[in-house]
Specification:
With about 200 residues, the chain is of the alpha+beta class. The protein has five helices and nine strands; from the N terminus they run αβαββαββαβαβββ. Helix content is about 30%, strand content about 40%. It is globular.
């Protein structure tokens, strides 16, 4: 019994999420905005900025699961039915949950109404596997930075407000993806595990 417990405790875990990809031209535009925001808030402390190559629009954060469950998760997502590509436009910057209590700086995302339905279908497909259901309404955003402190944030809030109407481009997503998040000393890296095209079975 002790040996079995030790084996279970040592089972490798993976950190997973489901997301839509962001095209290179949008990532480049947002990367330039990040550079300007950094310059505008030199006293900002404790901010972790997202690297442009890792930008994505999250549909479902799954979190840590045992690697042995990965196959079942892939199969469940392959059964999600969606028949229409998702249109996205990236515009402005916003703070979550609010400017008064900024924890995340994100680019705004204007997205097709049925994206929320897709997120809900993904959520429902994973519940039987023990993945907790979402308790909050789907709010599409693209994370630019995570803030650990308000120190120096006032300048960042002002600079972001000045970019409220700036357009960073658009995208059409005809597939969603299951990603593994690998936490490195240099920051998070993402490995694509599986892709699910619109109207088709998983590849």
């Amino acid at each position: 019994m002790t040996r079995l417990r030790n084996e279970a405790a040592s089972a490798r875990q993976v950190r997973l999420f489901v997301a839509l990809d962001v095209p290179e031209e949008v990532r480049e535009a947002l990367g330039k905005m990040i550079a300007r925001l950094k310059q505008s808030a030199p006293k900002l402390r404790g901010a972790r900025w997202v690297r442009p190559e890792g930008m994505h629009v999250t549909l479902k954060f799954i979190g840590h699961v045992e690697e042995t469950r990965l196959g079942a998760i892939r199969e469940a997502l392959a059964k999600v039915v969606w028949q229409e590509a998702i249109e996205m436009r990236f515009r402005g910057a916003q703070f979550l949950p609010s400017e008064r209590s900024p924890r995340v700086l994100a680019a705004g995302v204007e997205i097709s109404p049925h994206a929320g339905k897709l997120a809900a279908e993904i959520d429902r497909a994973l519940i039987p596997l023990g993945v907790p259901a979402e308790t909050r309404e789907f709010m599409p955003h693209l994370t630019l930075a995570r803030l650990k402190s308000r120190e120096g944030a006032e300048a960042l809030v002002q600079a972001a407000a000045e970019m409220a109407t700036q357009d960073f481009g658009s995208a059409r997503a005809a597939e969603f993806h299951l990603y593994e998040s690998l936490l490195r000393p240099s920051g998070a890296e993402y490995r694509r595990v599986a892709s699910y095209p619109v109207g088709q079975a998983a590849v």
